[in-house]
Specification:
- The chain is mainly alpha-helical.
- The chain has one domain (9-304): Rhodopsin 7-helix transmembrane proteins (Rhopdopsin 7-helix transmembrane proteins, Up-down Bundle), CATH 1.20.1070.10.
- Helices cover 72% and strands 3% of the residues.
- The protein has a 3-stranded mixed sheet.
- The longest helix has 34 residues, at 92-125.
- The chain is globular and about 65 Å long.
- 39% of the residues are buried.
- Residues 39-286 form the G-protein coupled receptors family 1 profile domain.
- InterPro entries: GPCR_Rhodpsn, GPCR_Rhodpsn_7TM, Olfact_rcpt.
């Protein structure tokens, strides 16, 4: 990437209108971050340690947990660092890395939710062909494909943002480097790039969301055809968890990137929910209504000494 900038570092101003609340925010966000890491690590241990969970659905859930560990780690450590009273400066390369990895992980999760919806569609609508369609090879290809296309999208957006000259102000009015706030600092006309970025960032999640809705409309129709009440309950239970996680993921994306008039404070609040709270809630969403995951989690917690033997 060609660097046309004379700015060598940027200053992260943090969340707008939160002056004097640094200590409270530090405790709050550090708690969220720790619970996010612990919850997703427990889900990973539960899936890896139980052979009953070595199925396509849990394979994708495992990858989601890995990305839910890394996704908040893009912006949270630096935010916690300056909230504790340290420097708010971030290098030019560090800023570009933040933007790239944020969109790489975010786009990959977006594609991954679409693949997970397809997996549930095949499991419920074509149960007899499920093991053939969702073979080990197909799962690996789909998992690698989500990361590949996420990387392409992130590379495009990062190149689009940092090919601009940054030669004047270097104060980022946000808590991490993201496209809308970085374009404001560029020493060039960004109107065309803003439109391209808006279409790119908006079109990708919208396309994925429409595919998810298509899958779930077919799923709901198939569930309603199930005669067994127990069968319908089980199908709705597994799908409702996934649908809840999807809504928690897509709603912030729509609020942040698809609104015509941005609001820095609202964007920061919503983005923190997306960066910290959603990854923290995903382990709860996928485990509370899933007996197999809860059983495996009990075994893991017992082996770690956190639960007595009778549980």
């Amino acid at each position: 990437m060609k660097n046309l900038s004379v700015v060598s570092e940027f200053i992260l101003l943090g969340i707008p209108h939160t002056e004097g609340l640094e200590t409270m925010l530090l405790v709050l966000f550090l708690s969220f971050y720790i619970f996010t890491l612990m919850g997703n690590l427990l889900i990973l241990l539960a899936i890896v340690s139980s052979t009953r969970l070595h199925t396509p659905m849990y394979f994708f859930l495992c990858k989601l947990s890995i990305f839910d560990i890394f996704f908040p780690s893009v912006s949270s450590p630096k935010m916690l660092y300056y909230l504790s009273g340290n420097s708010r400066a971030i290098s030019y390369a560090g800023c570009a890395s933040q933007l790239f990895f944020y969109h790489f992980l975010g786009c990959t999760e977006c594609f991954l939710y679409t693949v997970m919806a397809y997996d549930r569609f095949v499991a419920i609508c074509h149960p007899l062909r499920y093991t053939v369609i969702m073979s080990h090879r197909a799962c690996v290809i789909l998992a690698m494909g989500t990361s590949f296309f996420g990387c392409i999208q992130a590379t495009f957006l990062t190149t689009l943002t940092f090919q601009l000259p940054y030669c004047g102000p270097n104060e980022v009015d946000y808590y991490f480097c993201d496209i809308p706030v970085m374009l404001k600092l560029a020493c060039a006309d960004t109107s065309a790039l803003e439109m391209v970025g808006f279409i790119s960032v908006g079109l990708m999640p919208l396309s994925c969301f429409l595919l998810v809705l298509t899958s779930y409309s077919r799923i709901v129709f198939s569930i309603l055809q199930i005669h067994s009440a127990e069968g319908r309950r089980h199908a709705f239970s597994t799908c409702s968890a996934h649908l809840t996680a999807i809504l928690l993921f897509y709603m912030p994306v729509v609020l942040i990137y698809l609104r015509p008039t941005p609001s820095p404070w609202l964007d920061a609040t919503v983005q923190i929910l997306n960066n910290l709270v959603t990854p923290m809630l995903n382990p709860l969403i996928y485990s509370l209504r899933n007996k197999e995951v809860k059983s495996s989690l009990r075994r893991v917690l017992h082996q770690l000494g956190f639960l007595p033997e009778q549980l």
